[in-house]
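Fold it.
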Amino acid sequence: MATPQIVWFRNDLRLNDHAAVRAAAAAGPMIAVYVLDDVSPGEWRTGAAQRWWLDHSLAALDADLRRMGGSLVLRRGIAAEVLGEVAAVAGTRAVHALRHYEPWAKAQQTAVAATLDLTLHDGATLVPPGAVTAGAGGRYRIFTPFWNALLKMMPPAPPQPAPMIRFAAAPRSDDLSDWHLLPTHPDWSGGFDVWTPGEAGAHATLDAFAGNVHAYDEGRNIPGEALTSRLSPHLAHGEISPAQVWAALTSAAGDHALPFLREIGWRDFATETLDQFPAFADEPNRPAFARFPFRDAPGEFEAWRYGRTGYPIVDAGMRQLWATGWMHNRVRMIAASFLTKHLLIDWRAGERWFWDCLVDADLGNNALGWQWIMGSGVDSSPFNRIFTPVGQSEKFDARGSYIRRWVPELAALPDAAIHAPWTAPPMTLSAAGVRLGESYPAPIVDHAGARARALAAYEAIRA
């Protein structure tokens, strides 16, 4: 009789195009295991919004396995210890998993391999980190040449369907509800019903976007319109593979899909960066920024977190984040620039707030985005590129539809006043029912003064 094969699921919660599932199914009867390890990641344990998604995604994966005659074994604890226990009960040493690249994921993989026969497979990215190299064999630290080299390696191998699976007898499993992944008091997840976690939800989202991908390049910066893919949380939890996205979109739109596929390449670049610099989420990549004179301003940080800065485009983004666990990417950049440059608050404080609030939180992507804005990363916007919130708002939300959706107390303002209500005539504010400092805050910082302060801080670390 063939030896049972354990498949260790992590952020790869799917059955299709999953190399570990296919290898295990070919080798013997399978045992599907997910371990909730809140110890190994340290302060990067799964955030609150991710836990909401995880609860639904695990339930969906278990349902898919049950339709095939199996189930998902849930255990909580340190991954190596739990997998050792499951393997002992099952009478096996064989474990298959997709390779992941977060520092704690690498440590987990090393620990599991020390006691069990762990086989790691690729599939979390288009190509593994280190596969895209420059002419002299070095690894890239700038995105555009990385992307150009990656593009020459595309398309990825065709996605593979889920195999026929024989299941071994499943060991004891925790009850998902006992993990208490969902919020209770208060339940802040009311707006999360815009999402459908799970592999089926991922493919439905991909199918919907494939019909509109041709509009992505022109419309991706318009937060008031639904022209982005909304695939990011499905990719972050591995409910769909990058190769599946590539295949579906090139089939639907050919080269017209490339502007979006470049974003999938950026995701690979984020993983490449994290693999090269394991401390990238915690330390600035450019040493001078370790001396940056950040401010300790808890009141201003709280105003930013909850969308009460007095800058409507920033507040709209932060409220969308809180309500839905997601924020439009253009507004992510505006909000991050405001925190780090207008308020001079440490980018890591914003990074950690996003980690807790985003359903699509991904360590590499999150860190790369924040260090890009800060100017401290491997491939960054210059620090002195300081987003003007009002100018960005007027350019990308000209009619104020995004602001009206997420900052309803300003909804009655005319287009000309909604981007900077503090500049509107008193009669205009009164007619719209806006009372600055009461129904909506006055700006917590003056743009011109904040910009000058930020540039002075930057000059101080360059001296």
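The longest strand covers residues 30-36.
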